[in-house]
Amino acid sequence: MIERYTRPQMGALWSDKNRFRQWFEVELAALQVLGKNRQVPRDVAAKIRAKAKINVPFGATLSRVAKLPPGSRRDSSDQYAEKGFPWRLALGLFLLIYMGFRWYKGSFDRLLPEQARPGEVLGNWAPQSAPAK
Q1: Is the Cα dihedral 61, 67, 70, 73 positive or negative?
Q2: Are the C-beta atoms of 54 and 15 separated by less than 8 Å?
Q3: Where are the alpha helices (DSSP H) in 1-133?
Q4: Are 101 and 108 in contact (CB under 8 A)?
Q5: Could you give the C-alpha distances from 84 to 80, 88, 92, in angstroms and in order?
Q6: Contact, 99 vs 55, CB < 8 A?
Q7: CB 63, CB 16: distance < 8 Å
């Protein structure tokens, strides 16, 4: 909480020390129930209450907002998420193969210089054109 906008009573209620004290009380209550059910020794909750101290400075460092180290960047992508089908790559490969096939068949001959036509590039491997009548 921002101290300058907080009343003292609310600040004490929401302080780190109070928060850790409340967590501690919940854990002690759970230990008491476990002691009644004989899952732990009966007097363990009383022994812990007598010896435990809440370390507020340590707890305060855990509750502060984490800051990124200098030179690092925040990445919100999930590297383990399921990947979708690579449609862009599939479409690009399809178009490349289709254009190569059309070039092989001579569809672009009127647009290409003589050196780039399939007959010149492929030699004997070029498709044979139908004889003119």
Answers
A1: positive
A2: no
A3: 8-13, 16-36, 44-51, 56-63, 87-105, 118-122
A4: no
A5: 12, 11, 16
A6: no
A7: yes
Residue 97 near residue 89 (C-beta atoms within 8 A): no
pLDDT tens digits along 27-45: 999 999 999 999 999 999 8
The Cα–Cα gap between 2 and 6 comes to: 6
What count of Cα atoms within 13 Å lies in the side-chain half-sphere of residue 107?
8
pLDDT tens-digit map of 75-132: 888 888 888 899 999 999 999 999 999 999 999 999 999 999 998 899 888 887 655 5
- Residue 1 and residue 7: Cα distance in Å, rounded? 10
41 to 23, 37, 65, 73: CA distances (angstroms): 21, 9, 38, 49
DSSP state of 68: P
Token couple for 66:
């984490």
Q: 59 near 16, Cβ under 8 Å?
A: yes
